[in-house]
Structures are given as structure tokens and as C-alpha cells.
Amino acid sequence: MYAAFALQLKPKEFEQIRQFVYRQAGIHLKSGKEELVRTRLTKRINSLGLESFQDYLRLVRQDRSGNELTLMLDALTTNKTGFYREDVHFEFLREKVFPFLQPLHRIRIWSAGCSTGEEPVTIAMEAREALPDIDRRDFRILATDLSAGVLEKAKQAVFAQESVQCIPSRLLRKYFQCSHQDERRRFRLCRSARSMIVFARLNLVAQWPMKGPFQVIFCRNVMIYFDKATRERLVNRFHDLLCPGGYLLIGHSESLTGLSHPYSFIQPAVFRKED
Question: Which residue in the list 18, 44, 108, 145 is annotated as catalytic?
């Protein structure tokens, strides 16, 4: 363990890791992130019994399963999420989007970068509240993430008590079943809401198997890891998969300013594909 803390990340190793991660996932590790890379990868290197970052990068490259790459990217990114995070977006869903979707039978919403599932679950609850006949519609939420680990947690749809505190009590009682595990309360999402969500692993900078169209795409607090060129390509690919009049919602810490794109600005962090 102590040997791991003695590991030094050489400038050449950082550059090799930086270029590799960018090619594989579009993640842009800026200069100044050396200490973050060193500390976050050291633990994994130690657990594998390796002696250097060079050895670890060689292992990742040789692992044809892609599992080690996933673990590496998990270590270098932060899967921070929460129910009703940036609640103004869900207000917009209630007031503007669901009335737009009301006449439709086939509805598709994409949560790109869904992490442990709180975002698509929030969308599912709000959709069920807004569309009482939703079970008679062809309604699906596609929830994707690069991390297999967080997707596995998302599929379980079981949340700790502290994570559900932002859910209105009425909805918590309606859509979750409470149980006790290890003397702690756990909340499991009900089957009717779980069945609306399809989880899948997806690298946003690779090829996409789905064709759309989507009425709404959430991609919030994901593009903070990308450089300008990658962000521009991504938002234009989203545009191709949106139906006319569809919406792209991004994080409030993100912006499309300076990017070449065809969206109309609706309000901060909300953009629309014109009819």
C-alpha cells in the first residue's frame, strides 16, 4: 500500500494517458490534472500489483474485454447525480414538454450519462404523473452510461434513504417500496416505473446503435469532460436524433456558446430543434 503512494506520474506517462483516454472516450484531461490522474489511478495500480503507470497503461491496452478501460475511466470521472438535480429542467418538462408530448403515442426520451439512474427515474415519475394513460402508450426512456459499474447499480433501482430525500413525499410513497437492509432503509422503485427504462452501456464518442427519433435528450454535466471539438460533434449528433420540435437539455454549468450548431435557444440549458 505504501509503495502505491510512492508512485510518481512522469510527464511522458501523463501525456500517454491523456491521449489514450481522449481517443477512447473523448475525455479531455487538461494540463494541471496530473495529480488527479496520479491519485485516482494509484489505488488501482496497487491492487493489481503493478509497479508503474506505464505498466498499467500497457495492461489497459492489452485487455481486449474492455473491462479495465471501463475501470480506468470510472476512476478518472465523477458519477455525481441525484433525484431532481437541477429541478428547473423538471419544471420545464411539466410545463412545456409533456403538453407537447400529450398527443403522441410513441414517445422516446434519452438520458445520456445516466450514472446510477436517478435522472431517468425522475423522468419516469414525472411522465407517469403527467400522462395518466402512459401504460397504453409506446413510452420508453433510454438510459445510457459509459460505466458498467454505475449501470449495474442503476438497473437494481434500489436507493439509500439519504438519496431519496429530494423526492416529494407523495411520489416517494407512490413509486417506491421501503425495506430494511443492514439496519438501513432502502427504497426500491416500483415495477411500473422500472419497466419504462431501458439501460445500456454506450460510449458517446463511438458509434450509436439507436436511430431515434427522440422527443427529448438529457445530456447534463457530461460535456464538462470534453473539449470544444468533441462537444460540437456531440450536440450535432444529438440534433440528428431529435424529432422536429424536440429538446436538448444540458447541465447549467455547461454551454453551447462558441459551438456551431442548429438549435434554437429556449432558456438557460434548454435548446430546441426547429420544426
Answer: 145
Amino acid identity at 38:
R
- List domains and CATH numbers for the chain: 2-76 (1.10.155.10), 88-272 (3.40.50.150)
Beta strands in 14-116 (DSSP E): 106-112
State pLDDT tens for residues 129-156. Answer: 999 999 999 999 999 998 888 899 999 9
User: How do beta strands 184-189 and 158-160 pair?
Assistant: antiparallel
Answer yes or no: are the C-beta atoms of 153 and 201 closer than 8 Å.
Answer: no
Q: Is 40 a catalytic residue?
A: yes
What is the pLDDT averaged over residues 3-19? Answer: 82
Q: Which of 81, 85, 91 is nearest to 167 (CA)?
A: 85
CA atoms of 180 and 152, how far apart (whole Å): 20
Q: Note the pTM of the prediction, 2 decimals.
A: 0.87
C-alpha cell at 135: 401504460
